[in-house]
Structures are given as C-alpha cells and as structure tokens.
Amino acid sequence: MYELLKVDRNAPTLRELTLGKLREAIFQGYFKPGSRLVERALCDQLGVSRTVVREVLRHLEAEGLVTSVAHQGPIVAILDTAKVKEIYEIRALLEAHAAKACAEIADESTIARLKDIRAVIEKAFAKNDFHRVLEYTGHFYEAMFVGGEKYVTLEVVKSLNARINSLRFRTISSPRRGDESNKEMRKLMDAISRHDGLAAFEASMAHVERASEVALASIEKLEALESAAATR
Fold first, then answer.
1. Which pairs count as long-range contacts for 127-130, CB under 8 Å and 24+ apart, including other chains?
2. Rounded-to-integer distance, Cα 1 and Cα 203, Å
3. CB-based contact 46:18 (threshold 8 Å)
4. Strand pairing partners for 76?
5. How many Cα atoms are found within 13 Å in the side-chain-facing hemisphere of 229?
6. Distances (CA, A) of 7 to 3, 38, 39, 129, 219
7. Label partner for 70 (CA 20 to 30 A): which of 12, 83, 119, 141?
8. Rounded CA gap, 208 and 229, in Å?
9. Is the pLDDT of residue 154 over 60?
10. Which is more confident, 3 or 115?
C-alpha cells in the first residue's frame, strides 16, 4: 500500500524527492482534499525523518496544496470552486497573451521545439501516460512563454504551478479529454506556426476555458459523491 510513497534514503536530494512524492500523491488523489496529513504516519509511509516531513509540508502549504487547520494540523487543501475558477481565469489571460506574443515573434527553432514537445505529449496521451503528459505540458508552456519573451509572466505562472498542475492532472486524466485536448492544442500550434497572433490568442483562450469546464465538472461530481456518502 505504501510503496507508492517510499523514498530511496540514499538519494542525494532527499527533501526534493520527498516533496515530489507527496505532491504526486496529492495530484493522484492518494490523499484526498480535506484529508489530514499526520506527521508520524507520513514518516512511516515515506521512510524519512519528521524534520523532512515538516519542511515538505511547509513547502506544500506555500504552494497552496496543503492548509493548516486549528486543532487538526495540516490537511490537503479543499478544492474551492471559486478559487478554481479564478485560477483558470488567470491562466486564460496569461497563457493567451503569451501565445499571441509567441506567434508574433518566435523564431523557427522555438516553433520546432514546440512541435517536438507536442509530439511527445500526443504519444503520451495515446499510452495514457498522464505523468509524461503533465511533465511535457509544463515544458511546452515554458517554451511558449520564453518564445514570446514573457519572462515576468512566466514567473507569475510558476508561482501557481502546483495548483495548476493539480487541476491539470485531474483534467488530462478525464475520459476522452486526451483527444479533445490534442485537437485544441493543434489549433494553437498551427496559429503559432503561421505567426497568427490573434488566432493563437483565441485558440489558447478556448483551450483553457474548456479545461476549466472539465475541472469544475469533476469537482462538482466529487462534491456530490461526498455529500451522498455523508447522508448515508
């Protein structure tokens, strides 16, 4: 049961590995929203010291994935639909402006890199390798922001990355979302390749808006299931 979380104690960056393991466990729903994160249990599950666990929990709290509750301690942050909507609104604006800028000024080497990354993502979707999809989606957006010379905007997005990736994992693993997402991103990639800033802006906005709909539907479904379970 705990093998998913076990960390190699001989690894040189134990804290970072532990952080990655616990973050991934939250993304995958191993620890569900509202679940208590008990230090002693985490030490046993992760195979690390309490000091490391405390440092990691503080880091996850700064990322917005963990919340400290009086008389309970740290819990997995509960998905608040209002905050989720706001995150997607921010994403839509920042990514669309970056897509427009990238389309207008990116050189051919940047466009080639974006195409290569998209090829990896599509292959990963075909294999239901959602971890690879998540990893290379991050690479795609970083290359797009840099290609559009939106460096400050990229830093703002990075500050939200943990929460964005938590929601992104939820959407990319939804049934049939892979085909839908690939079609949306092909439109974006086509617009960037043609140096059509307006089309890139619109394609990016449409992609994020659809991702928002999928994420919110997933959250609402989870809330309904939890509510039904509570009334039994």
1. 128/178, 130/169, 130/172, 130/173
2. 42
3. yes
4. 66
5. 6
6. 9, 17, 16, 22, 30
7. 83
8. 31
9. yes
10. 115
User: Which tokens go with 162?
Assistant: 């943990």
**Structure tokens belonging to residue 223:** 């809330």
User: Which one has a higher pLDDT value, 192 or 79?
Assistant: 192
**Contact between residue 7 and residue 21 where contact means Cβ atoms under 8 Å apart:** yes
Selection from 148, 162, 139 nearest residue 94 by Cα: 148
Distance CA 202, CA 191 (A): 9
Nearest to 166 by CA among 16, 66, 43: 66
**Contact between 75 and 45 (Cβ < 8 Å):** no
For the stretch 77-104, pLDDT in tens is 887 888 899 999 999 999 999 999 999 9
Q: What is the pLDDT of residues 18-72, one digit of tens each?
A: 998 999 899 888 898 889 999 999 999 999 999 999 999 999 999 889 999 988 8
